[in-house]
Known about the structure:
Elements: E1 7-16, H1 21-28, E2 34-39, E3 49-56, H2 61-75, E4 85-88, H3 92-98, E5 103-105, E6 108-111, E7 124-127, H4 140-152, E8 160-164, H5 170-178, E9 184-189, H6 192-204, E10 211-215, E11 226-232, H7 235-240, H8 242-247, E12 249-261, H9 265-274, E13 277-285, E14 288-295
Parallel strand pairs: 6-7, 8-9, 8-11, 9-10, 11-12
Antiparallel strand pairs: 1-3, 1-4, 2-3, 5-6, 12-14, 13-14
Helix pairs in contact: 1-2, 4-5
Amino acid sequence: xxxxxxxxxxxxxxxxxxxxxxxxxxxxxPDAVALMMGLIEKGPDKGKWKIEAIFEGExxxxxxxxxxxxxxxxxxxxxxxxxxxxxxxxNWLKENLVSFPPINLGRxxxxxxxxxxxxxxxxxxxxxxxxxxxxxxxxxTTQGCLMAFExxxxxxHPKVILDMGCGSGILSxxxxxxxxxxxxxxxxxxxxxxxxxxxxxxxxxxxxxxxCVWQSEGxxxxxxxxxxxxxxxxxxxxxxxxxxxYQHLRPEGYxxxxxxxxxxxxxxxxxxxxxxxxxxxxxxxxxWSTLIVKRD
Length: 296
């Protein structure tokens, strides 16, 4: 006879340097039903970060090992010691929904489908169930991008926008609604699941008329130039694609960059300055940073 304590969930816990946190965040977020990270303040691992990922059912160990190995290689660190441990059954998806209250961020009201109350009439409402794609609005990098976009609108109303690494499509949809659909937005992601989720979210939020979504590895399938490019990805790919960003920005165009920890900001800034982009403004939300850069 099964009980509420029947073991059906699995957990992995390991420790990494702060510089590697963002890589493991992105690698594990799509598959884990709960992902928790925190700074270790005492003991032999003081100053490092503890990462705890929980899965409903036992994940494929080989696939999980590959994700962890790739994240470690991308971060330039040895692969951390990890193992899978069974834990008591719990509906983590339900727990996550309950712990995802509506987010009020400037003019935006971001909420999940589990919220029954109608959104405030004086806010731009974005219904997001990120599920298997990055971008529920909770993450500090998404919030930093929205803050930067709000400031950018005081300087420029972009007509053509690219959302590089769109995840759930939250930034594309926020821009579409803020600009009253008077914009052309291309949203691309290397992950086909993110493309699917973005397409579904665009339909749900009634912005499909001005957002085109497709799969692309970086700028590989991107052909034109833009007034604004969102790139909420990771420090290393941002640095590697700095020249592509410059080439795909129109003169006087802006880039909003995020997905990197604050201590990585100088590296990201240096790479973009090297290709000819000027620094406009920086934002910090928790341990994460966001930048606005400009092509003069």
